[in-house]
């Protein structure tokens, strides 16, 4: 067992623009984060991951950086950042920065120079190509709709952007780019930050020659996916970054790497690799995405057997070899209780059940702001209320293709990133206590019911349940390091597993739906002396775990002695 502080930590993600506004401009800021450090400390988390706060024209809420070593005007100043770091550290909280190494803003001075002429020394900092007979250099499609190529009139060439046209991709084949990035990462480390989430890191290398994508098994939007994702040279660049810079600091790192399974992930996070501590995988996020052209927007119901298969794969393959980053939600995903729970009748029960899962898997749990109070998706009636560049581009593209608006809005209500980006609901007062100005995006109208102030007062709230789960993780090593084993793999409603560490065994029972299934555990797993660590319903008197009717979205975690039998779960 290879113990590390970041394995034992719980991470809380802040999307700064929507966290807390202190100057009345309707956008969250650094002073807002500082003023809630006590709240986070009290919740019990250890690390705060802050989405990009660097100077940015904000086409993609900070993921388009125009100066890596300065702070976005809307968020505050570098002095305020230094204060945030000091105050966090004084409370024993760590700060993880979100770094975008794949691309910059088109307003970054490097790009301004790069596009100024073909022979500018910075030209080769980005990926420029000539068109083919008036067409873009290849057929790759951007994540945010349309071609990845943007034609630049002035110099008569196209530049590549995997995301929006305001986010040109850097050319990592250029040693000067590599050196500049290393220098910048080190600059932040010297300031004392405690880690990085590396945005879109899987994409920093593109296939040699930038050939057309023609993978017929892929959706049109990602037909060329394997030509710009997880290529071998990404590992060379990451191990180089590790050896030259990261290795010298006791930090944590997590990479955003879509499109890989656990075996492939080991090449990033394997104990012997010296690249990253963990990666965010996307397999469970794709369980409700359809297979027709529009990928994530194409809604299909997810099913529990597939979820078990995906999660069990990551749990077993990475055990003792790497480490998982577990999450249900982030600023790019819909709200977890709306997506995987029931945000109406069983909002509280299902949010607690999902939280139980998040905290009792092997891996570091990542809580996304508002998840700890069960915040839900929104469904704005008009596209005018949406702000996300991906959503807006999708809307335009679909309408252009003749898709009825009603159908497009249905998809947006389910999958838009703005679901997770509405302001944090602090109180039941005006604008949920987020701002005294006009919020940059509408507050979810359910804030009188769902807000931090009321959640703190209610001992049965989702908030207090999170607090308890986080505290349990610190009390019981088995929750952090225990080996996962899936039970009842073919059960379509119940997700049951154990986590074992020497003589300690955790038994986790989760009813993932609103029915009342009966749990029939094998006799050897029905322990004599069992200790209930947490549950989301009151439990009265003696019960028989060999024959137990569960309530909707019920979750229970027992601690027991490791059963003497080496029980074997069926395969899925
Ligand atoms: C992934 C980030 O999480 C997302 O918000 C952003 O739009 C893209 N990378 C581009 O940086």
TrEMBL record:
SUPFAM superfamilies: (Trans)glycosidases, Glycosyl hydrolase domain. It catalyses: Hydrolysis of (1->6)-alpha-D-glucosidic linkages in some oligosaccharides produced from starch and glycogen by alpha-amylase, and in isomaltose. It is an enzyme of class 3 (hydrolase). It comes from the Bacteria. The keyword Hydrolase applies. Keywords: Glycosidase, Hydrolase. SMART domains: Aamy (SM00642). InterPro entries: GH, GH13_cat_dom, Glyco_hydro_b, O16G_dom_2. GO terms for biological process: oligosaccharide catabolic process. Gene3D superfamilies: Glycosidases, Golgi alpha-mannosidase II, Oligo-1,6-glucosidase, Domain 2. Pfam families: Alpha-amylase. Its EC number is 3.2.1.10. GO terms for molecular function: alpha-amylase activity; oligo-1,6-glucosidase activity. Belongs to the glycosyl hydrolase 13 family. This is oligo-1,6-glucosidase.
């Amino acid at each position: 067992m290879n113990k590390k502080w970041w394995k034992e930590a719980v991470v809380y993600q802040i999307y700064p623009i929507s966290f807390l506004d202190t100057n009345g401009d309707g956008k969250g800021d650094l002073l807002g984060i500082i003023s809630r450090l006590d709240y986070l400390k009290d919740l019990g988390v250890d690390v705060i991951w802050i989405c990009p706060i660097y100077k940015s024209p904000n086409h993609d809420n900070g993921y388009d950086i125009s100066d890596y070593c300065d702070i976005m005007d809307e968020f505050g100043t570098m002095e305020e950042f230094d204060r945030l770091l000091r105050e966090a550290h004084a409370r024993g909280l760590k700060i993880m920065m979100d770094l975008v190494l794949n691309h910059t803003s088109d307003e970054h001075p490097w790009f301004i120079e790069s596009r100024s002429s073909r022979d500018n020394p910075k030209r080769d900092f980005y990926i420029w190509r000539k068109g083919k007979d008036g067409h873009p250099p290849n057929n790759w499609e951007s994540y945010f709709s349309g071609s990845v190529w943007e034609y630049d009139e002035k110099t008569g060439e196209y530049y590549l952007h995997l995301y929006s046209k305001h986010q040109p991709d850097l050319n990592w084949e250029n040693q000067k780019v590599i050196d500049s990035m290393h220098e910048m990462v080190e600059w932040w480390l010297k300031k004392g930050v405690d880690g990085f989430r590396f945005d879109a890191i899987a994409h920093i290398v593109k296939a040699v020659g930038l050939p057309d994508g023609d993978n017929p098994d892929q959706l049109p939007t990602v037909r060329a996916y394997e030509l710009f994702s997880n290529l071998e040279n990404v590992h060379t660049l990451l191990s180089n970054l590790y050896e030259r810079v990261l290795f010298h600091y006791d930090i944590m790192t997590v990479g955003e790497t879509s499109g890989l399974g656990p075996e492939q992930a080991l090449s990033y996070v394997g104990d012997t690799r010296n690249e990253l501590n963990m990666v965010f995988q996307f397999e469970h996020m794709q369980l409700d995405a359809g297979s027709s052209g529009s990928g994530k927007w194409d809604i299909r119901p997810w099913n529990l057997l597939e979820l078990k298969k995906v999660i069990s794969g990551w749990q077993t393959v990475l055990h003792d070899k790497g480490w998982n980053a577990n999450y249900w939600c982030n600023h790019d995903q819909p709200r977890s209780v709306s997506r995987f729970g029931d945000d109406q009748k069983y909002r509280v029960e299902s949010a607690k059940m999902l939280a139980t899962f998040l905290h009792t898997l092997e891996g570091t749990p990542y809580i996304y702001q508002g998840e700890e109070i069960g915040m839900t998706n929104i469904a704005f009636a008009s596209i005018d209320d949406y702000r996300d560049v991906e959503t807006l581009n999708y809307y335009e593209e679909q309408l252009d293709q003749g898709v009825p608006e009603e159908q497009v809005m249905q998809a947006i209500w389910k999958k838009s990133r703005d679901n997770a980006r509405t302001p944090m609901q602090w109180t039941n007062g005006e604008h949920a206590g987020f701002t005294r100005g006009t919020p940059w995006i509408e507050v979810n109208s359910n804030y009188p019911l769902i807000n931090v102030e009321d959640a703190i007062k209610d001992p049965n709230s989702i908030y207090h349940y999170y607090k308890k789960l986080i505290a349990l993780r610190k009390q019981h090593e088995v929750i952090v390091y225990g080996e996962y084993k899936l039970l009842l793999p073919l059960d379509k409603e119940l997700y049951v597993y154990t986590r074992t560490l020497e003589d300690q065994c955790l038994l986790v029972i989760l009813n993932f739906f609103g029915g009342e299934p009966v749990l029939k555990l094998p006799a050897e797993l029905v322990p004599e002396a069992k200790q209930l660590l947490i549950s989301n319903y009151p439990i009265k008197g003696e019960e028989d775990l060999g024959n137990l009717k569960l309530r909707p979205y019920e979750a229970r975690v027992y601690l027991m002695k490791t059963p003497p039998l080496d029980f074997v779960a069926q395969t899925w």
